[in-house]
Amino acid sequence: MNPILAAVGGTIVLAILAIAFGLILSGIDRRVVARMQARVGPPLLQPFTDVRKLLAKQNIIPANAIPWLFNLMPIVALASAITILLYLPFGSFAPVLGEFGDVILVLYLLIIPSLALVIGGFASGSPYATVGAQREMVSMIAYELPLAIAVIAIAWRLMAAGVAEPFLMLTLMQTPVWDVVGPLGILALLILLVMMAWVTPGELSKIPFDSPEAETELAGGILVEYSGRNLGLFTLSQAVKMVAMSAFGIILLLPWNLSPFLGLTGAAAGVADLVFFLLKMLFVVIVSVTVVRTMMARFRITQVVGLYWLVLGGLGALAIILMMADAFLLGVI
Amino acid sequence: MAKKAPYIVPVGPIHPALKEPVHIELTVVGEEVISADFTPGQTHRGIEWMGLSRNPVQIVHLTDRICGICGVTHSLAFARAVEQIADITVPERADYVRVIIAEFERIQSHLLWAGVAAHELGFDTLFYLAWRVREEAMDAIECITGNRVNYDIIQIGGVRRDITEVQHAQIRKCLDSYKELFGKLKNMFLEDAVINSRCKGTGLLSFEKAMAYSTVGPTARASGCTADLRVDYPYAAYGDLALKPIMPTAYGTEVNGDTYDRIVVRVFEIAQSIEIIEECLANMPAGPVLWEEKVAKILAACKKAEGEAVGRHEAPRGECLHYVAMDKAEAPIAWKVKASSYSNLHVWPLILKGAQLADIPIIVASVDPCLSCTDRVAITDADAHKTKIFTKEELTRMSYEKTRRMRA
Lengths: 333, 408
Known about the structure:
The complex is a heterodimer.
Chain A: H1 3-36, H2 46-56, H3 67-86, H4 103-123, H5 127-160, H6 169-174, H7 177-180, H8 183-203, H9 215-218, H10 228-253, H11 259-262, H12 266-295, H13 301-329
Helix pairs in contact in A: 1-3, 1-10, 1-12, 2-10, 3-4, 3-10, 4-5, 5-8, 5-13, 8-10, 8-12, 8-13, 10-12
Chain B: E1 7-11, E2 23-29, E3 32-39, H1 47-51, H2 56-64, H3 73-86, H4 92-120, H5 124-145, E4 154-155, E5 158-159, H6 165-190, H7 193-199, H8 207-212, H9 217-222, H10 229-232, H11 259-283, H12 295-304, E6 306-315, E7 318-327, E8 334-338, H13 340-344, H14 348-352, H15 360-366, H16 371-374, E9 379-381, E10 386-388, H17 392-407
Antiparallel strand pairs in B: 1-2, 2-3, 4-5, 6-7, 7-8, 9-10
């Protein structure tokens, strides 16, 4: 088959599946939060209804906005969120564009949907959106540090262990880093796990890190002027980003597949691994998004920076030192 | 670094952080507020004006509807003013019923506020919890008065309904469940790390400023003023109770006058109210609950009355004051309401200055603003789409002119 055609087909299938799964994830998230707050909560498929309604509603462009930027950004956000997926392996399925980019590229791609939000916020010409956009930039700068530390620590340890191409996503997925490290490395990985659990809600702008949107402070902040189709596209991009971010965390730190344990091969293995992967994503979302946002209040933006840089940055430095000590003790460097 | 230009962030008249319309204008540099101003007058309904063409018994129903939360505050203050003018003695049992319902109102109002405060902080789980447990107070109020919101239990010269033995069981059940819950609520609001870090040291109101701005209620007490009408000028059955104003020291902390202290005061006032209700239930004297059963006789007494009086009540938000003047007529010739929030709102520009933008909602909410009670005068020309706020001089000049017109 023509490789270009395969890539295009893969992208379309992946985009549809990711959007569907992302919306279901956010439906489950809303439902579980509601149950934990002793509410009934919306139906599981409510996000689909919301998006369908948004796409049909009037698309208002404020008089102060820069229309082309304002309208372009939701598309950029959704497109870049889907692009991330092309580089991620799902279960035992290799990434669609695996050979063209590695984990560093994914790190950069993860920034683009947020960046699109920021530009869209500034372009909407509302003081709330401006403040929200400033906060989004600050929190992006804040959570990039622990995220980069986690990626570097893991990839470096794989490289030290002599794994070929340690920065490729497929390598990370196929060579669980837990298998190559010693006891100190396990400790370091547990620290990284905690860090990733805190980075995920930040990356997804969920409470306690939702200060860019802060309903009670900024009336929706960065998204305040968005409506109709544009808001629908942003909602979709958030759903896809939720899939991408949780998948990224799983590939880094929880990469095991089910099929080797069950002794499955062929199509059955692919399906089993994919289902297992999706279950892991659900687990990640519930632990680091749903539970956290149920039990916490919103941080001030200054506190967000303090947490990510000082606390998680410090933990990350500790994790890197432990990793190096581990590699040294095992005699691989 | 170049100095960033300040920009204006409007909050309101309609904003998710505000439960009622008020317009706050913030001048912001980065995330810091450098000055704040506010414009009330967005919910004026002309209730005082309506009152001036009604008799006192009818006005009591109007006062119930001044505020959706303080259902008994305004009625009680108004009834006390009229009772003083008409020289009506309220039966002792009625005084106890009034205190019980007023304290239930304080419980539900503080719980409502606590929920709103949690929501402003982005802590929706706590918001749902507070509002869910508030339902028990609402049920108890419904059991006593028959209504959940506009209680309509106060009458000139007493109360419309007695609290019978049958109702005691439900009221006790409600109080017991609150006593059980109190420790949990206290922990969730006062021990939570994020609430602590967001509320301590924000919205500072010093003792001197709190006095100078004549703040009332929990806002004043959180800054160290021991003002509590129930203690300072006991009325109804409060004189029979050994009360002490709740200060932030109740939680063993220093008086700082910050948002956190305002939470402390309100949370502990819930506990105080539970004790007051229990004591009142146990010590209620027997007897009638109305000075006069027949409304016609109450009206006749009011129609004969002449003079002016001030009725005061310590509402959940602080002192509420009604001034009434009567001149041997069906309707009073003057009726002025000063709601507690009116005294407290003026500290907003003061405590918002220097705050982080993120803390605006909780600081604004920390004085527990109730705007439908507060708003009195707004002149709107609907045809010209203009709203005008009159200055003191203009109002004085206009009243001179009106007097001259009336004399001519």
